[in-house]
Design goal:
The chain has 548 residues and is an alpha+beta fold. It is 50% helix and 9% strand. The protein has two domains: 140 residues, D-3-phosphoglycerate dehydrogenase, domain 3 (60s Ribosomal Protein L30, Chain: A, 2-Layer Sandwich); 267 residues, 2-methylcitrate dehydratase PrpD (Orthogonal Bundle), CATH 1.10.4100. The chain has a five-stranded mixed beta sheet with strand order 5-2-6-7-8, sandwiched between helices. The protein has a two-stranded antiparallel ribbon with strand order 1-9.
């Protein structure tokens, strides 16, 4: 059984905090109280509620003065706009250059943008610090991370502070032991020694600061990392977790790559390459993988095998948990194992099939909620969809061989690439349509590619799956990737199968909507959607579901 914790477990009990002082909202005040409480345990100094209130009021006054100097904060809201300087924006103007080992990532849940991205960011920052001049490092006294926007608004429920701290102490997403992250929940006051040059200093969760949720940030998922000498900043870098575990930083320059053999920026162009050269979608994508990444076919296939096996493993592990309680204040019981057992007992084969696919998706998504290792396909929040389909196709009477699964993963990646290129994969930018919707479209493409369908049928299947997720908001209850996220993965997997069945049985040329139109609609809807429905827990179920 996994350890269950509530927000109140994260810091030691203290007397009820005073009411928030003027100039600071209640959430920020309570977060400061929690951080001060943790610091008190580590230093042996006790802070009274009055002293905490005074400290919060002082900090609020400083921040207010800064805002007023900058023209005030009237009309500030949760930002979902992107700076035109970001590479994720600039790269959308040319051909698709993303490759599989950038796209499919292994890392801890529950979120690619709020967990894997921040861990990659802080690991990168620590590596940068190790390369600083010795005279600069001798002054260092600590490291500090500030989370902004959506990272601050829902980071607590995503375990962002644990992921960020893990990166600072040298942990990488693909290799971190989930038990290390679990221990951070169980022991929130734990001290972690970090060595930089000749200096060793201690870090804790108190060094990860939940900062402003609203403001004009370059990306909704913005964070800064600082190397400090007391109150003096020795070195600072601004970073952005841009979705799907992809990261950028201020001044980011993308790595040099080769040119694609079959350049495309739309599904229409991709399909034309396939049809005019008598190739499958998977063939075109494989040729580009080789040309852009510089790897050979065997290396690409080895990576795809690793991803497929990791997907299967997440489902198997998820099914092994019987009715445990997932971390966090929702007290949500897992149900993948129960659904799996009961689906196997269904009298009718069709009922059994739907129940089993749903169970597989629940299993992988519950693993994500536990903070265990999952695969971004395209994100952590949607990490139950593709693995459910891969598991259903391989661990059943179908026993689809691995070479076919590879082809399916390439076709699915192509759909994901196009959504990243022309819209978004980040719920903080586009809502859940950008996560579950894209995952479902990718899974539909995977199924139809494995069935040997022609390019137009693959496009039609992906389009149908995405179309019927348009407008889906992201409103995680209490900021945890559990409600409604876990069940959404099951619905996304089932919708993918339905989309594939429709596409393979209809007259393909009569399909009325093309994938490019639907991806454009995804992008338009993302821009039009109210920011409070973009992974902020400010509306929807997050606002209306009362936790007792």
């Amino acid at each position: 059984m996994t350890h269950s914790t509530t927000d109140s477990d994260l810091f030691p009990p203290s007397s009820e905090p005073a009411n928030p002082p003027t100039g600071i909202d209640r959430r920020s005040f309570l977060m400061r109280n929690a951080a001060i409480g943790a610091a008190a345990v580590m230093t042996g100094t006790t802070w009274s509620p009055e002293a905490r209130a005074q400290q919060a009021e002082t900090e609020a006054a400083v921040q207010q003065a800064k805002r007023e100097a900058a023209g005030g904060d009237a009309g500030l809201k949760m930002s979902s706009a992107l700076s035109p300087d970001l590479d994720v924006v600039k790269s959308s103007r040319g051909p698709v250059m993303t490759v599989a080992d950038e796209f499919y990532k292994v890392g801890p849940g529950p979120s690619s943008s709020h967990t894997i991205g921040p861990m990659r960011i802080t690991y990168d920052f620590y590596q940068r610090c190790t390369k600083l001049p010795a005279d600069q490092l001798t002054q260092a006294s600590g490291l500090k991370v500030h989370l902004f926007g959506s990272l601050s608004a829902t980071g607590k429920g995503h375990g962002t502070e644990r992921a960020a701290l893990a990166g600072l102490v040298g942990k990488e997403p693909a290799t971190v032991d989930p038990r290390f992250l679990d221990e951070m929940i169980a022991k929130p006051q734990q001290i972690y020694p970090v060595k930089l040059g000749t200096k060793t200093f201690n870090l804790s969760l108190a060094d990860i600061v939940y900062d402003a949720t609203k403001g004009d940030f370059p990306h909704p998922n913005t964070m800064t990392c600082q190397l400090l000498a007391g109150d003096k900043v020795l070195y600072e870098q601004e970073y952005y977790s841009v979705g799907g575990g992809f990261i950028e930083w201020k001044g980011y320059e993308p790595p040099k790559k080769g040119q694609p053999k079959y350049p495309y920026a739309t599904m229409k162009e991709l399909r034309q390459h396939a049809e005019s050269n008598n190739l499958s979608i998977a063939d075109v994508v494989m040729a580009n993988e080789i040309a852009v990444s510089g790897k050979n076919e065997e290396q690409v296939n080895a990576f795809l095998d690793k991803i497929a096996n990791a997907m299967i493993a997440t489902v198997k592990t998820g099914l092994s948990y019987k009715d445990d309680v997932l971390p966090g204040p929702i007290k949500l019981h897992s149900k993948a194992a129960t659904v799996f057992e009961r689906a196997n007992d269904d009298t009718y084969m069709t009922d059994r099939a739907i129940g089993l696919v749903s169970a597989f998706a629940l299993a992988a998504s519950e693993e994500n909620a536990r903070g265990h290792l999952v695969i971004t396909a395209p994100t952590g929040g949607s990490a139950g969809v593709m693995p459910a389909i891969v598991y259903a196709l391989t661990q059943s009477d179908r026993a689809i061989p691995m070479d076919k699964i590879r082809e399916g993963l390439l076709a699915g990646a192509a759909v994901g690439y196009l959504c990243k290129h022309n819209a978004t994969l980040a719920a903080a930018e586009g809502g859940c349509q950008a996560e579950i919707g894209v995952a479902s479209a990718m899974a539909a493409a995977l199924i139809t590619q494995i069935l040997g369908s022609p390019p137009r049928v693959i496009e039609n299947a992906a389009e149908s799956a995405l179309e019927h997720h348009l407008g889906m908001t992201c409103d995680p209850v209490a900021g945890y990737v559990q409600v409604p996220c876990i069940e959404r993965c099951a619905f996304g997997a089932v919708k993918a199968w339905v989309a594939a069945m429709i596409a393979t049985n209809e007259i393909a040329s009569r399909h009325r909507v093309d994938l490019d139109t639907t991806i454009q609609t995804l992008a338009d809807t993302a821009r039009d959607m109210n920011p409070k429905y973009k992974e902020t827990s400010e509306a929807g179920l997050a606002q209306n579901l009362v936790l007792c």
